[in-house]
């Protein structure tokens, strides 16, 4: 595959952008090689600067659930742009978005729009601290909640991909307020709550983890967190930046039948524009300014172009709930096909899948937490990633990321992917 223009662009980018990218994992640092620079996308396909076509399993890291440049979403964005791209004043559209979200997620009483998942999680933590009057938070090893200081302790995603143990610039004071447990280890959380419950403002968790590959919660894990939070007056925050509006209308809360106190959103909620949100129970959200004194604000929050993209994307999902079933069926089809394709080699592997989230770890053991994810053979992953990319299949360039399916994918695309996986395995040296 000729990627000469991407090579040239990557060199040029590095003289003006740190590492040539505006978000670290895009640089392919851990898998090596030159990132492909994208020039356009439509439906399930990305096109790079050299006009190569790829089947996209990143979907902009989640948002593009309907496929790229979906007609209704593009039309709505274009129509709004003519009426200005930002007012910094309230609009009816923001009420429409909030009401739509509330109708899709019944336990959200109040919701505040922000511009990224990081902002959403950072703000939710502040609200939890303000509400409880406590300082510490508990997060899970390998979960990623954005790049706010308090989340960078034992974080997944790019922090794990680049194997960064301690992030310079995050003060010891902030780190000391972040306690961690292994994902799925309810006993550890119980012990920690017994000693630190009186200091814990929040437990924040990815209900289905997607930042160490895709990792499923064990039965009873979230139920256990819910009851510990009730017992110790801790705010349970479901970080649904990945899972929100992707797994079901009501996200993981609906699928797992757990009511979190606060929930954070990003990705799908903005239909591909920079949007995040945090919301939840009225008595907690009433802490947020101007109702309460937990200050939080944003120049571009509720931006009309972003809101119209989100509103149209969410409306399509709301009015066509069969999309979730279709997406899941496609993902299971892919999983079954990959299972067969990868079995043609001796290399052990594990495929984890939930709804339209899926990932492959080259491991002989089940992958249920960060330690098991990190002990997979990531040298094999690198080779697999490049072998797939060369065959026009665009996977996340890290085993510490989930793949996301979009609904524009056809059976032919999935078959091509499965075939590419079988061919790729022939090249891989363990
Ligand atoms: N939470 C989760 C679960 C995420 O996956 C991410 C980003 N991948 C974030 C928060 C941060 O979102 P953003 O990149 O929009 O700041």
TrEMBL record:
UniProt lineage: Bacteria, Pseudomonadati, Bacteroidota, Chitinophagia, Chitinophagales
EC identifiers of the protein: 5.4.3.8
Sites bearing N6-(pyridoxal phosphate)lysine, chain numbering: 267
UniProt GO MF annotations: glutamate-1-semialdehyde 2,1-aminomutase activity; pyridoxal phosphate binding; transaminase activity
A Pfam entry, by short name: Aminotran_3
InterPro entries: 4pyrrol_synth_GluAld_NH2Trfase (IPR004639), Aminotrans_3 (IPR005814), Aminotrans_3_PPA_site (IPR049704), PyrdxlP-dep_Trfase (IPR015424), PyrdxlP-dep_Trfase_major (IPR015421), PyrdxlP-dep_Trfase_small (IPR015422)
Localisation per UniProt entry: Cytoplasm
Reactions catalysed according to its record: (S)-4-amino-5-oxopentanoate = 5-aminolevulinate
PROSITE patterns, alphabetized: AA_TRANSFER_CLASS_3 (PS00600)
GO terms of biological process kind: protoporphyrinogen IX biosynthetic process
Protein name, per record: Glutamate-1-semialdehyde 2,1-aminomutase
GO cellular component: cytoplasm
